[in-house]
């Protein structure tokens, strides 16, 4: 991983702009693309008008993400003619390019090239080729360059050049890529390939470098963080087999290694799966004070029939037992989860059981998605598709319930003194809040950005807290 300050742009090289959409995993891909371009002397710019090449890094997880990606591509092309650089190249990358490049190359002749997930570390080379072989004037016969390859296998290493797009105090570290889970609503395995973990020394080296640069928060990410290392075992465990007696690298081993790195920083676990938690992992988190007391664990549903149809590889009893073990084993834990409403076949009884579960468990952080019918997924072919009207009604009802719970949880923090990571002079996040997706602490007086601070919570503002730095 290379910091932006270490790159030396060349005046003769083209400048690169980036619009990155979607999740943190996609953001890391964007950083790798820009890192490769910058390592070849290209200048990274935040000004789209100034860029010789504009990259739209797309998302294709759900319908709304695909629509946002298409809108961004078309808007970029429309603006291209109005900019100072009408010859600007337009490249489309990310999950939507990986999944639909063949169709998009026909439907979007405005694009100069489509780049797949295995080409993210070669953006600089691709840009050089585009300028070495100027494309013809776009006409009815023009077809964009389609560089996407199938069966993705790439994963970044500790020395892969990256141009970090996050604030200097927080960073995402991708510890694995791909997914082995058969969830019926999801097409990510088809886009990103099978799960493949980095080595523990590779991750540790990257984190050590980040901490040395002053990063205070390390967010470990992958499609399934708790599956880390299991693909490297001599014999694969089954999806529900406990990993306490692991025969190879595990997330617990990695966490212990990260705990030994000198410095004052948080390690945050994102995108864990309920099927792969173990007693060993719970004990490890409890014993390692650098690991944030925060677990992101998407559950998707709780009704037995829905879990079965979603192919989630867990039962309601397993989930309930796991939550009890997590909260008992890790004092002060904040649990974040997400649920899907309106999945095919979801009845009012199924939905009500989900509401009852949310009400009884009282998750500290919770998000809700309406089911998105993804082509080529198993769920897309299921009977009992739920109407958009019903899905939206269930979404609103679930979020109203969670809003009440969140307000009550926030009110219980008033009067406490909490350690926070200051984002800006007037905003901060607690250990219970991940970047971009969770709540904030609104500071009543300025504090140094990028540093830890103690604040006394004096009030609330809907989901957010209000605090006075001490």
Plain-language structure description:
The protein is of the alpha/beta class and 470 residues long. Helix content is 32%, strand content 20%. The strands form 4 sheets. The chain has a 6-stranded parallel sheet with strand order 2-1-3-4-5-6, sandwiched between helices. Strands 7-10-11-12-13-14 form a 6-stranded parallel sheet, with helices on both faces. Strands 15-16-17-19-18 form a 5-stranded mixed β-barrel.
- Termini Cα gap: 35 Å
Helix content: 25-40%
Q: Report low-confidence residues grouped into runs of 5 or more.
A: none
* Radius of gyration from the alpha-carbon trace, in angstroms: 23 Å
Largest sheet: number of strands, sense, barrel closure: 6 strands, parallel
Q: Which shape, going by the Cα principal axes?
A: globular
How much of the polypeptide forms β-strand, as a percent range? 15-25%
SS content category: alpha/beta
Number of beta strands: 19
Oligomer: single chain
The chain-level mean pLDDT equals 92
DSSP summary: helix tally: 12
Across the major sheet, the strand order is: 2-1-3-4-5-6
């Amino acid at each position: 991983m290379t910091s932006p300050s270490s790159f030396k742009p060349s005046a003769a090289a083209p400048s690169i702009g980036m619009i990155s959409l979607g999740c943190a995993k996609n953001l890391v891909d964007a950083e790798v693309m820009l890192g490769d371009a910058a390592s070849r002397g290209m200048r990274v710019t935040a000004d789209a008008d100034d860029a010789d090449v504009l990259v739209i890094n797309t998302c294709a997880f759900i319908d709304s993400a695909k629509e946002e990606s298409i809108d961004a591509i078309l808007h970029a092309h429309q603006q291209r003619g109005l900019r100072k650089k009408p010859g600007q190249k337009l490249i489309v990358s990310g999950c939507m390019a990986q999944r639909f490049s063949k169709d998009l190359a026909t439907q979007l002749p405005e694009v100069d090239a489509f780049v797949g997930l295995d080409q993210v570390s070669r953006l600089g080379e691709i840009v050089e080729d585009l300028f070495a072989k100027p494309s013809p004037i776009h006409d009815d016969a023009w077809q964009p360059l389609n560089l996407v390859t199938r069966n993705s296998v790439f994963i970044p290493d500790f020395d892969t050049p990256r141009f970090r797009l996050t604030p200097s105090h927080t960073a995402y570290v991708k510890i694995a890529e791909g997914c082995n889970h058969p969830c019926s609503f999801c097409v990510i395995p088809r886009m990103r390939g099978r799960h493949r973990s980095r080595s523990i020394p590779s991750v540790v080296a990257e984190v050590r470098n980040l901490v040395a640069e002053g990063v205070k928060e390390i967010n470990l990410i992958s499609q399934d963080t708790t599956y880390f290392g299991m693909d490297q075992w001599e014999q694969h465990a089954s999806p529900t087999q406990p990993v306490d007696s692991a025969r190879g690298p595990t997330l617990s081993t990695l966490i212990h290694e990260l705990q030994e790195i000198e410095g004052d920083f948080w390690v945050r676990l994102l995108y864990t799966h309920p099927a792969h938690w173990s007693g060993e992992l719970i004990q490890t988190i409890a014993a390692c004070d650098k690991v944030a007391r925060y677990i992101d664990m998407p559950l998707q549903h709780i009704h037995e029939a829905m879990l079965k149809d979603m192919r989630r590889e867990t039962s309601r009893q397993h989930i309930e037992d796991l939550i009890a073990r997590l909260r008992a084993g890790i004092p002060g834990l904040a649990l974040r989860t997400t649920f899907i409403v309106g999945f095919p076949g979801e009845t009012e009884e199924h939905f009500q059981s989900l509401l009852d579960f949310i009400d009884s468990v009282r998750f500290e952080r919770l998000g809700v998605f309406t089911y998105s019918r993804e082509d080529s997924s198993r769920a897309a072919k299921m009977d009992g598709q739920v109407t958009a009207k019903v899905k939206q009604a269930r979404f609103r009802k679930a979020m109203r319930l969670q809003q009440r719970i969140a307000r009550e949880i926030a009110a219980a923090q008033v009067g406490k003194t909490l350690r926070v990571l200051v984002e800006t002079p007037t905003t901060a996040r607690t250990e219970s809040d991940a970047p971009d997706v969770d709540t904030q602490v609104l500071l009543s007086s300025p504090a140094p950005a990028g540093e830890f601070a103690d604040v006394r919570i004096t009030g609330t503002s809907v989901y957010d807290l209000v605090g006075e730095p001490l």
